[in-house]
């Protein structure tokens, strides 16, 4: 019988005194929802010689919790209960709450051909578990485990409050005639990675001039702000460039409208310097960085009266502090926008209509690009996904038509559903998988250092 259950990552320190178990490497937040980093540490108390075990969650912040001696009254998660029954004695739980206001994992691509540290720039998250007398002691690397994780922002499936952005530009030529009006609409505001973006362009050419050329661009803005109170440097990257030719040119005194489907991706941009990607763990594939989510009481997006302000706010502000009861202290959680540091990512569709004589109309429509909701199928083994509708009613042909699989209708299982299955199905087990350790590669043919090695060498930068 094929093995069925949930995948669990494990990693041991060099001395073998600690083994850490983690249910997943990606953790997600979105507006109004936090996530929990939970796991177990296995160690022999007799081997600790009176020392304790501590776990630290790092992202330029430091929050440290004691694992051993175990704190009293800690409520275990479903994963921890399963791990405790599997590991039996000497297994100690840890748990962190990850508020949504903290920065997402982001990696900026380095120069083509750059290796090791020279290629690294971004926001990294990791867990560090170590043996020490106190939490503030400098631990031995032989008694330390560092696990690279990612924090991502996901797009909720509920689109009830998703207002599609739009923009309008008007220009009157000196040669007479009526003005030229261009309108650009998107079909929604929030997209998942892999979703097609439907861009509708409408042009009312009231002039006496023939309009021949148009450009459609999808642009990424990545603002790196390294110090509070200082303005950050922004890198603009063209993700997609199109020159539509459908029904062009636009004749004088006529109207024109077309809809274009665009899927932003990293294909062909592997060497694009400073392109922002979702935080990368080792050699696992990754995609474009998720948009920085902004919650601002004065912002209504889109702003019909001040569209430029809405556009700028979406990629330059970060106002999402964690709950006041949170024990995490971090510069990025303060309410003053001037105090925020990090990498802020935003996207927009820009449409340029060339009207001749070096003049043009342009419309800019910002949008959010986020990860799909967390999917527990990614950490499950041998578990069949829930059924999804493959056919829908075709009103025109009085029959049914197939539905293509997209990130929105892909088979999905929540972690709560997986936890309930693990609790109720005795045949489901834990499938342990080692964190890949490439530490020896830096001494041989591969000079690159993976995420965990990089952070191992930077353990004492507090």
UniProtKB/TrEMBL annotation:
SUPFAM superfamilies: E set domains (SSF81296). Residues 176-374 form the Arrestin C-terminal-like domain. GO terms for biological process: G protein-coupled receptor internalization; signal transduction. InterPro entries: Arrestin, Arrestin-like_C, Arrestin_C-like, Arrestin_N, Ig_E-set. One of its GO terms (molecular function) is G protein-coupled receptor binding. GO terms for cellular component: cytoplasm. Belongs to the arrestin family. This is Arrestin C-terminal-like domain-containing protein. It comes from Monosiga brevicollis.
């Amino acid at each position: 019988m094929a093995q069925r259950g949930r995948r669990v990552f494990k990693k041991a320190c060099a001395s073998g005194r600690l083994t850490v178990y983690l249910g997943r490497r990606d953790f997600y937040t979105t507006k109004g929802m936090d996530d929990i980093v939970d796991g177990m540490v296995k160690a022999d108390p007799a081997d600790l010689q009176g020392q304790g075990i501590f776990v630290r969650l790092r992202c330029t912040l430091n929050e440290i919790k004691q694992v051993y001696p175990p704190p009293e009254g800690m409520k275990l998660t479903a994963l921890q209960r399963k791990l405790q029954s599997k590991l039996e004695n000497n297994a100690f739980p840890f748990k962190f709450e990850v508020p949504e206001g903290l920065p997402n994992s982001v990696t900026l691509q380095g120069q083509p051909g750059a290796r090791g540290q020279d290629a690294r720039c971004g926001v990294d998250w990791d867990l560090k578990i170590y043996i020490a007398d106190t939490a503030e002691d400098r631990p031995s690397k032989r008694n330390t485990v560092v696990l690279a994780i990612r924090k991502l922002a996901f797009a909720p499936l509920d689109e009830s409050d998703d207002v599609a952005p739009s923009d309008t530009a008007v220009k009157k030529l000196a040669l007479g005639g009526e003005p030229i009006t261009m309108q650009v609409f998107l079909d929604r505001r929030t997209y998942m990675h892999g979703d097609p973006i439907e861009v509708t362009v409408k042009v009312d050419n009231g002039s006496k001039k023939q309009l021949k050329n148009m450009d459609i661009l999808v642009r990424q803005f990545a603002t790196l702000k390294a110090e509070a109170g200082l303005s950050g440097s922004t890198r603009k990257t063209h993700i997609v460039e199109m020159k539509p030719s459908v029904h062009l040119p636009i004749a004088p005194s006529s109207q024109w409208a077309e809809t274009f489907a665009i899927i932003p991706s990293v294909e062909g941009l592997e060497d694009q310097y400073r392109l922002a990607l979702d935080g990368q763990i080792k050699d696992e594939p990754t995609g474009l960085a998720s948009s920085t989510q902004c919650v601002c009481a004065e912002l209504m997006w889109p702003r019909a009266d001040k569209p430029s302000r809405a556009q700028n706010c979406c990629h330059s502000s970060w106002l999402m502090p964690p709950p006041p009861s949170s024990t995490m202290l971090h510069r990025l959680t303060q309410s003053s926008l001037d105090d925020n540091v990090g990498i802020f990512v935003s996207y927009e569709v820009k449409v340029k209509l060339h009207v001749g004589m070096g003049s043009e109309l342009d419309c800019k429509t910002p949008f959010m690009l986020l990860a799909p909701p967390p999917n527990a199928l990614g950490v499950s083994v041998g578990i069949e996904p829930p059924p999804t509708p493959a056919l829908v009613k075709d009103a025109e042909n009085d029959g049914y038509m197939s539905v293509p699989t997209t990130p929105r209708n892909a088979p999905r299982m929540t972690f709560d559903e997986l936890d309930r299955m693990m609790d109720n199905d005795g045949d489901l087990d834990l499938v342990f998988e080692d964190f890949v350790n490439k530490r020896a590669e830096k001494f041989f043919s591969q000079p690159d250092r993976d995420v965990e090695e990089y952070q191992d060498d930077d353990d004492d930068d507090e």
